[in-house]
Structure formats: C-alpha cells, structure tokens
Amino acid sequence: MTTATLSCAGRPVGRYSFAPDDPAARPYLHPVTTLAGVPVTEERPADHIHHLGASVAVPDVAGHNFWGGRTFVRGQGPTELDNHGVQRHLGWKLRDPDGFVEELSWEADGVELLREHRTVAVTGVSDTAWALDFSFSLTNRGTAPLSIGSPATNGRPGAGYGGFFWRAPKEDTAPDVFSGTREGEEAVHGRPADWLALAGRDWTLVFAGATEETRRDPWFVRTAEYPGVGSSLAAEHRLPVAPGATVVRRVVTVVADGRLDRDAAAALVRKVVTA
C-alpha cells in the first residue's frame, strides 16, 4: 500500500492511497474532508463499488478499462471483459503534507500505454474552505497512436465519463448542483462550464477547470442516482494521442463547510484560479 497524507493549516484533510492488488487498481484520495472534518468522498459504495473517492479514471484507453467494473460494448451494453488496466505507482518526485508529485505508468497486458506525471497540492482558502489543485499529464510513450474513449463514444448516449472524477457521499436527499449560469443535473450535465458546484447537507464542492483545455471539457454530473462529478476527456468523440504527444488537464476543487450559493462559489473560484 502506497500512501500520502494531505494537511491544510495543520489539519488532515485527505489520504491518498494505492493498493496494487486491487482489481480497480488506481491511486485515489479517500477520505477527503472539510476543515471541520465532514467527509466529502465515498469509497466503494454499494451502487458502484469501483467508485474510489477522487481519482483519475478512464473507461477506455485503446480498448482497455482503467475505470473498473463492466465495459460498455456497442450493440451489447455493459459487459464483463478481461480488459482491465492498472495505474502503477512508479515513484514520488516530491511528497509533503501540502502535496506531492508522482510518476505513474498506465499498463495493460504488460504493456505501458501511457506515462503520467501527477501533481497534487493543498492550499488554504479561508477559515472554512481549502482547495485541492489536481493536475495530470498523460504521454503516449509508444510508437503507435492510441485514443481515449468513453461509453458515450462506444454507443451509450450521455455517458461520456472518464478523466478526473469525484464520488461524493450519498445522503438522504440528493445534493444541489449548479454552475455560473445553470442549475440542476439535466441542465449542467454534458456541458462545459468554467466551474461547477455540488452542495450537500453541510458541505460544498466547487470544481473549476484551471486551463483552457480543461474548461472546454464537458462536465459529467450525477445527483439523482448517486452524487458524482467528473471532467470528461471524451464526452462525444474519442481523444487521439499521437506517439510522444501529451494530454494535460488541471482541476482545482474547493472543499467548503456549509452550503454555498452561486455568488459564494464564484467568489471562491476567483480566489483559487488565476486567468
């Protein structure tokens, strides 16, 4: 088990871990909490046991599943396949209480498909909020082109998930979700937005794209079935990655105590994301 503990202002706010014998083997953050200690991630919930807190998960990299669970096959639907890959921890470039830099290898059938450089940093925002700055760079180290897909690109409409994904805790009532101009799951799902907020009983998560490429990616949003938000790499079309090419994305997530409204969420984004 590879682990790192993240802290903000001397308080533990996140645990990062990776178990290489896990069938959905990828590093992930859980538990993540507000400064007051309220949990805002969920690990292996009964409705989707391959949901692992906050992580980078992709259901289709050159036909290999780096998400966990079944694979959506065009004309068949969700299908159990022996096509699962692993994000293998190669080493730390830096590991401190306020963040880390990690190298990973995305491997399937003994072959490295992608090499990842991951940077995670914690910063204080206010007495009731902190920010998780999560960036990842995926490089095709092979000699042949490959592409990243999703269930949507394989024939399942609206299921364009894959990329940075955050599974939040399920509560008695579904959380509210809103962007700067829209409100509700149906209105925000599948659309790009500079930022998106998910507000539970006594917590709020505000997700903000911190690069132009990230802001162009649509958000994958679920609230009614389960609470989850992701930034989609391949929402409608496969994302090609040529040999030697690199895909870079950066999402900053503000973790706040209490339920924030649109103005408060926007103000926090302005604090943590520069132009």
What does it look like?
Helices cover 7% and strands 49% of the residues. It is globular, with a radius of gyration of 17 Å. The termini are far apart. The model has no long low-confidence stretch (mean pLDDT 95). The protein has helices spanning 185-188, 212-216, 262-272; strands at residues 2-8, 11-18, 28-32, 54-61, 64-66, 71-73, 77-79, 86-96, 99-108, 111-126, 129-140, 146-149, 163-167, 176-179, 195-199, 203-209, 219-222, 228-231, 239-241, 246-257. By secondary structure, the chain is mainly beta.
Number of strands: 20
Strand order of the largest sheet: 8-9-10-11-20-16-15-14
Q: Taking Cα atoms only, what radius of gyration do you get, to the nearest Å?
A: 17 Å
Helix content: under 10%
Q: Which class do the helix and strand fractions yield?
A: mainly beta
End-to-end distance, in Å? 38 Å
The overall pLDDT, averaged over residues, is 95
The portion of residues forming beta strands comes to over 45%
Order of helices and strands: EEEEEEEEEEEEEEHEEHEEEEH
Morphology = globular
Number of helices: 3
Low-pLDDT runs: none
The profile of the biggest β sheet is: 8 strands, antiparallel
Quaternary state reads single chain
What features would you highlight for this structure?
275 residues; mainly beta; eight-stranded antiparallel sheet; seven-stranded antiparallel sheet; 7% helix; 49% strand; globular
